[in-house]
Write a structure and sequence with these properties.
Blueprint: H1 10-41, E1 47-52, E2 58-63, H2 66-73
Antiparallel strand pairs: 1-2
């Protein structure tokens, strides 16, 4: 009877974790793009706002319901 020992060195383990994280992020971006495309087919478009905070980090936010926001403000 033979025994099989599996070993993953730290570099390979880190690479696997990076690949999993990047795959997850890629799927999320793909879903967001498909959602924007489908909403665009129905004529629902959001405006993109660029916001820069005090630390100089730029955040981009998509307002899909701009009309609803304006109605609430009035």
């Amino acid at each position: 009877m033979s025994t099989l020992f599996a070993y993953i060195d730290p570099f390979t383990g880190g690479l696997v974790i990076q690949l999993l994280v990047m795959a997850f992020i890629s799927v999320m971006v793909f879903i967001k793009k498909v959602k924007a495309f489908v909403l665009g087919l129905f004529g629902i478009k959001g405006s993109i706002e660029s916001i820069e905070d005090d630390g100089g980090i730029q955040t981009i936010r998509l307002n899909e319901n701009k009309d609803n926001d304006q109605k609430k403000a009035a």
